[in-house]
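Holo prediction — F0G.
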Amino acid sequence: MHSTTTKSHRGRGVIENFREFLPVSPATPVISLGEGNTPLIHSPRLSERVGHGCEVFVKNEGVNPTGSFKDRGMTVTVSKAIERGATALICASTGNTSASAAAYAARAGISCVVILPVGKIATGKLLQAFAYGAKIVGIDGNFDDALRIVRELGETGDFTIVNSINPDRIAGQKTAAFEIIDELEDAPDFHLLPVGNAGNITAYWAGYQEFLARDRSTKLPAMIGFQAIGAAPIFRDRIIENPETIASAIRIGNPASWKQAKAAVVESRGAIDIVGDEEILAAQKWLAQNEGIFVEPASAASIAGLFKWCNSTGIAESFQEIREGSRIVCTVTGHGLKDPDVIVERMKELKPVAATVTAVRRAIDL
Ligand code: F0G
């Protein structure tokens, strides 16, 4: 196997760290915000939950420059767009893609249009798109409607589409798999992640395959994707007209990379499974309060999925038969501060006490 001397460096960005694996040349201008090289955090508590001497790691993508994994794909996509002379970007989004596109467009000095399902975008993400100066258009429809409009507008040639139907996005996002292999010195046995439009599972699978082909790893993980119960088109094998879940980032009924995601699951002998909103919120809380990692609800789907597979006894969808000492990676895709609405509700319970040490001590109650 290849040595690990090429380990990536924080702050250099994914293009400089993985140039030879990306569709860039010395002539490509690099539009980067120092994305990638995110922490792969070993979790003793999750490892204990799985048992069988397994090791569980959390790949925390929430610490990317705009707070989600989208930045990995966006640096490549926007750099290539600039190389080709683009002057305006366009995307549909459940929020994170728009935040990322808006930031990289600002960095590149070009304009960015985002089409969003109105009233269905988490506060923090909408706020980001505004802050970075994107032109925001809210539509009376869902993400799938927004993507349909974007595809049509993209055909006019006036805009570069920066959704994951743009292959440069997938190319950039596969670098997360490279980092995991570099750090673990091989691929893990299982990789768990949330699935929405299905670009990310496609990208990870491409990355794992590429490093195996280049002799940088000796195996491939089983890819296990989790959709929310009310937004599970791949699991149910049919388009969901009105997808519903608290995890707004993965509220998608007709994923663009449906076929590729299925291929990843079949080829890797993985699975697509579902988790409920209650399980998602419980996993979000658990991860924050037991590991100090605060993620948005969509991201917690991978942890909710891990718990489900630990608890269930059916052999097909559980870790009951897991090989001793397996290594499991769960990607958490976005930062918790982006989608604080559920927690803001809980904070309303906070009542002030008198400004005295006695009152404060009484309130602490420890
Ligand atoms: N997690 C988060 C936090 C996301 O924002 C998304 C997708 C996913 C998971 C699912 O990834 O689509 O590659 O399967 N968000 C997109 C957006 C759709 O517009 O920001 P996927």
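READOUT: The chain has a mean pLDDT of 94.
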